[in-house]
Write a structure and sequence with these properties.
Oligomer: single chain
Shape: globular
Number of strands: 4
Strand content: under 5%
Radius of gyration: 20 Å
Distance between the termini: 30 Å
Helix content: 40-55%
């Protein structure tokens, strides 16, 4: 498992900050039909009697983790997204595969394989702490939702109330993943269709994409943009030439280090702000799906509005996270409260 060192992150940050200075977008000084949805009532005070200190327990871990390893923030937010979009926010992404099993689990498939181990470890640590105070009460799905919110806020983003009451899924199937996650080269039509199928709209798409204001992506997610855009054997014409040159240095066409990553936001990759949208307007989007938001007439006005008004973006992002967090929530006998987030209760060894 690849581990991002602080030195590597700093070198990437200064390199891409230098590129953004050259481009001039940073201030630099010399010094379709909707699928049926299953929504259930969630509430902010769901654990007010059974685990009233829950938010404080989660915060005690997330705040320390953020200080020690800032990459935990984008990793956990991404983990929450990948959980919710596949069969709902039910902790199914957290289940680890077992040796000898003929049925694969979600985290063993495609893009899920690149989910950072730090995010899984974070959820497990929080769950273990919660179990010491409120045993058998709080779901792993709720732990993940709260932790994602904490990291948004710790990185400089909005603080929003998390509605709770999810139960953990009793299944995790690899076969459910492929059609439920966007690809790095998805078209806006494909993204809108996918988001609509989850009960989300165009505003949610653009706002939730703003999570790319922090975090990094591996070269293989945007390599075709650099060398063979849409089969043309040429770079994407909508990428800034100076950014293109920088990315090609880090990500050669052949023989590059598969562990190398580039920041989504070349200006403030560790700060949750609205610079992501300014990057798009300067043709500095990293993924084809990022830059596509500016190029499509349905999403361009929202990119421009969020780029001008951070408060407007924060408001839309908070609402989008609340809506996403309610996708296909499991309640009652359809779910369980796992004792260990990586295992279904019936798989625990007594």
């Amino acid at each position: 498992m690849f581990v991002v060192s602080s030195q590597m992150l700093l070198s990437l940050f200064f390199f891409f900050y230098y590129v953004s200075c050259l481009v001039g977008i940073a201030h630099c000084s010399n010094g379709t039909r909707r699928a049926p949805l299953h929504r259930h009532q969630l509430s902010i005070d769901f654990y007010s009697k059974t685990c009233p200190q829950l938010d404080q327990l989660v915060s005690s871990v997330t705040s320390r983790r953020f200080r020690e390893s800032p990459v935990s923030a984008p990793a956990t937010i991404r983990l929450f997204f990948h959980d919710c979009f596949v069969e709902g926010c039910d902790g199914s992404i957290l289940i680890a595969g077992s040796d000898g099993s003929k049925v694969g689990v979600e985290r063993d498939v495609g893009d899920n394989k690149s989910l950072a181990q730090e995010s899984f470890e974070l959820v497990n640590e929080v769950k273990s702490l919660v179990e010491t105070k409120c045993p058998g009460v709080v779901s792993c799905a709720d732990v993940l939702a709260i932790a994602a919110r904490d990291f948004v806020h710790l990185a400089g983003g909005p603080y929003y109330q998390v509605k709770k009451g999810r139960r953990d899924s009793k299944v995790s199937l690899a076969s459910k993943v492929k059609l439920n996650l966007p690809k790095s080269n998805s078209t806006i039509d494909e993204l809108l269709h996918l988001f609509t199928s989850k009960g989300l709209n165009v505003t949610d798409l653009v706002a939730l994409s703003g999570a790319h204001t922090i975090g990094f992506s591996h070269c293989d997610q945007f390599l075709t943009r650099l060398y063979n855009y849409n089969g043309t054997k040429k770079p994407d014409p909508f990428i800034d030439p100076r950014l293109l040159k920088a990315l090609q240095m880090y990500c050669p066409r052949f023989g590059g280090n598969s562990d190398i990553m580039a920041p989504f936001d070349v200006q403030t990759p560790f700060v949750f702000d609205h610079m992501y949208y300014g990057n798009l307007e300067a043709n500095m989007g990293l993924l084809a799906t990022d830059q596509g938001l500016l190029l499509d007439a349905r999403t361009r006005p929202l990119v421009q509005a969020f780029g001008k008004d951070k408060g407007l973006f924060f408001q839309a992002f908070s609402l989008g996270m609340e809506k996403m967090g309610a996708i296909r929530v499991k309640r009652g006998r359809k779910g369980e409260i796992r004792k260990v987030c990586s295992k279904h209760n019936n798989n625990l060894v007594s």
